[in-house]
Specification:
Blueprint lengths: L1 H40 L22 H11 L7 E5 L5 E4 L13 E2 L7 E7 L2 E9 L11 E7 H53 L14 H50 L5 H33 L7 E3 L1 H18 L3 E5 L7 E3 L1 H18 L5 E9 L2 E9 L23 H4 L4 H11 L3 E6 L4 E8 L14 E5 L1
Parallel strand pairs: 8-10
Antiparallel strand pairs: 1-2, 1-6, 3-4, 4-5, 5-6, 7-9, 8-14, 10-11, 11-13, 12-13
Helix pairs in contact: 1-3, 3-4, 4-5, 5-9, 6-7, 7-9
Length: about 475
């Protein structure tokens, strides 16, 4: 508030000073006419009763020294203003302030206030002056002057303006200070209550009460802060729930393979398995369950590395059509067991993309694996690639089935559309989260949507490579039963 008062005072002072300068200039424009008449009256050796005029009878010009003395005697009548005479080149030939300015040239412009009067702003003896001038006949002046100039220091006008403004500013400042104090008290009270409520809610959330909300709404900054706080609390609560669900899922899914590992390994050790077939079956189960645990640990490790930004990328030109065909061949056996039809549509002129081949294999494998797992039996999984203005887009589409996923959440960590599916069948919900991070690291986008027909469409957008790698022409479309 103090800063606002200072700025307002400075701005007011600027305008008042400028108005005062204009007023002083107008006064000098009017005063220079009688001053010029008084100067002309001193030109004659024998001063007539009336001021001399060009061609006046009986006027002989005074000597320069006598004329200068007369001008010096005239100066005290000018109310502190400075008198100057200029020659035809507007150079000073007389200055009541001293001879230091002799020869100095003034720039004179016509006044917009009074006809036949000129104005100037100049610097004399290190001070800025406002000046008014009238042109006189040089032949009728002992010094050969062509202009009579009346000047006043700007500082004198500024001092007058400051004296006039000071009392008014003090009065206005006092009133503004009282108003500011009252306004500050009201504003502080209106701010303190919601801020106190926000602080208490933040302490509750820090203590583990993630369901706490403040309910502060409004169009001002406090209302927006309250809304943002509630959104943050909802996100924290959701994240904590996801973590608890994840820990429960991982504990449950780890319990089954670990129980199998312990049971069958113990049976192998204590010799309770007597036949070779029993031992072989136990060893097979131990091997499969070990791989299952290792796969879960690897997914967690990959996600941690991607989110930490410590995973390395080797971007190169990749033939997307060939990559899709390779991935489809890998999932066709699993698709065939469920009667799925795998369709692929890739244009022949599709350019290569800029991606890390290994990471792209991981991403596309996750997308196709997810489609094969959750598509209803006997349905069709369609993969399409196309070129658009942003790069090369790949769409993997499959019917959503009974457990329709949430497109906004399916890339969250640990999210599964069907919580009843076991990790052995549906994983722990890390594959798509890892894929989204990998695609972002390759400067691409990965998102999903449910189309009007009820199909889940997962979109993968990657930049096209500037280097066109040669490849075999790909048919416009190919299909095969899974």
């Amino acid at each position: 508030m103090a800063t606002s008062l200072l700025l307002a005072g400075a701005l007011t002072w600027f305008f008042v000073r400028d108005l005062e300068f204009q007023t002083v200039q107008e006064q000098m424009d009017r005063q220079v006419t009688p001053t010029t008449a008084a100067v002309r009256h001193q030109e004659c050796l024998n001063r007539p009763l009336l001021p001399a005029s060009p061609g006046a009878a009986g006027c002989r010009l005074a000597a320069q020294a006598d004329f200068t003395d007369r001008l010096n005697a005239l100066v005290p009548q000018l109310a502190g203003n400075r008198l100057l005479l200029l020659d035809a080149n507007r150079r000073v030939v007389y200055d009541s302030g001293g001879a230091a300015s002799f020869g100095f040239q003034l720039q004179i412009t016509a006044s917009k206030r009074i006809a036949n009067v000129g104005e100037a702003t100049t610097t004399l003896d290190g001070q800025t002056y406002l000046a008014a001038a009238i042109k006189i006949p040089p032949a009728r002046d002992p010094l050969g002057a062509s202009y009579v100039v009346l000047a006043q220091p700007e500082s004198l006008a500024a001092s007058a303006a400051a004296g006039e403004l000071a009392s008014r500013l003090l009065l206005a400042g006092g009133a503004a200070l009282l108003a500011a104090m009252a306004l500050t008290l009201l504003v502080s009270q209106s701010l303190a209550r919601p801020l106190t409520q926000l602080a208490a809610a933040a302490q509750d959330i820090a203590a583990g009460n993630y369901s706490r909300r403040v309910g502060i709404r409004g169009g001002d900054e406090i209302g927006k802060l309250g809304l943002a706080f509630d959104h943050m609390a909802e996100a924290v609560e959701r994240a904590r729930k996801v973590q608890r669900d994840f820990l429960a899922n991982v504990s449950h899914e780890l319990k089954t393979p670990l129980t199998s590992l312990i049971g069958f390994s113990q049976a192998l050790v204590d010799g309770s398995l007597t036949t070779e077939s029993e031992k072989a079956r136990a060893a097979t189960i131990v091997h499969e369950e070990s791989e299952r645990v290792l796969r879960m640990a690897q997914e967690l490790l990959d996600l941690a590395r991607v989110e930490a930004g410590s995973i390395s990328m080797h971007i190169s030109a990749v033939d997307l059509a060939a990559q899709l065909q390779q991935e489809l061949e890998m999932v066709k056996p699993r698709a065939a067991t469920r009667g799925l039809t795998m369709e692929v549509l890739v244009p022949a002129n599709l350019p290569p993309i800029a991606a890390d081949p290994e990471r792209l294999h991981q991403v596309i494998g996750n997308l196709l694996d997810n489609a094969v797992k959750y598509a209803p039996d006997g349905s069709t999984v369609r993969t399409e690639a196309r070129l658009n203005v942003s790069g090369v887009e790949t769409v993997v589409a499959n019917p959503a089935g009974d457990h329709r996923p949430d497109p906004e959440r399916m890339f969250e960590r640990f999210y599964r559309a069907d919580p009843s599916r076991s990790a052995a069948a549906g994983g722990v919900g890390l594959g798509l989260a890892i894929s989204k991070q990998l695609v972002a690291a390759m400067r691409g986008r990965l998102w999903a949507e449910i189309d009007p027909s009820g199909s889940l469409n997962v979109h993968l957008l990657l930049p096209a490579s500037g280097e066109l790698a040669p490849r075999q022409a790909t048919p416009e479309a190919s299909s095969g039963a899974g």
